[in-house]
Amino acid sequence: MDLKIENNIHKLFFQLIRVAIGNAVCLSHTPKAEEWQMLYEMAKKQSLVGICFAGVQRLVSQHQSPPEMLYLQWMGMAAMIQQRNEVVNRQCAELQARFSADGWRSCILKGQGVASYYKVKGVRLDDKDLSPLRQSGDIDVLLWKDSLSSSENRKAVVRYARQIDAGAVGSAHHVAVHMLQDVEVELHYEASYMCNPWANKKLQEWMRANVNPKWDERLGCFVPSDEFNVVFLLAHIFRHYVSEGVGLRQIMDYYWILSNSPLKG
């Protein structure tokens, strides 16, 4: 792709995101059919198809909508995302009920656990809940027992995971288990971690003391406190930055937390 065209598409893509989140009303120019197709492909690559469709819907009144077939395709993908979120939300509540019955305290991390922050409150646009349009992935659950130390909790979570799934695979901070047919579940004994052992020790101590679960009415289960999410997700993004790479969906999550958390002042 020509560098000038690529830069123009990137510019349009970020403008589309700004329209979606309530920070702009329209694009700088109406994209051509091929530009719209590239915007759609970029939204898919960044797992922002649903969020960007919210922007596409707003652009209809500005006479900047994509070609009809692409609009319908985009709308269909957004509807599938909403349907999947309904299923995954129910699964989160069912999983947490199971963990509670088995004697564990738990919180839904990331993904479904931060979707409630996705609320547009722009002065130029009507308030809108975008949480159903956030593209979900696997289900991350933080498990712990107050009576256990960090090292004891880690061993207990691993044992519990392998009771559920004998082939459960562990990593530095979680165990992946097959509990659901179409969604992977990761049981975390640590929400995240730092590579520096001293920094990691301080992080784990802080997170253990500040998880302070709160009830998410929309999700129907417990999620971490706002304070916890602000620190945890920043640490998570940093770790991805130095090892795996950061996607715009992660940046979007953090944007909404900073925008809609009571801590923002």
Question: Would you write up a description of this structure?
Answer:
It is a single chain. The chain has 265 residues and is of the alpha+beta class. The chain is 54% helix and 12% strand. A hairpin with a 7-residue loop joins β6 (174-177) and β7 (185-188). α1 packs across α2 and α1 packs across α3 (49-60).
Residue-averaged pLDDT: 90
Arrangement of strands in the largest sheet: 1-4-7-6-5
Give helix % range.
40-55%
DSSP summary: helix tally:
9
How much of the sequence lies in strands comes to 5-15%
Major sheet, described briefly?
5 strands, mixed
Q: Kindly state the number of beta strands.
A: 9
Topology:
Layout: H1 3-20, H2 33-45, H3 49-60, H4 68-101, E1 105-109, H5 110-114, E2 119-120, E3 128-129, E4 139-144, H6 150-164, E5 169-170, E6 174-177, E7 185-188, H7 197-210, E8 214-216, E9 221-223, H8 226-243, H9 248-260
Parallel strand pairs: 4-7
Antiparallel strand pairs: 1-4, 2-3, 5-6, 6-7, 8-9
Helix pairs in contact: 1-2, 1-3, 3-4, 8-9
Summarize this, please?
This protein has nine helices and nine strands.
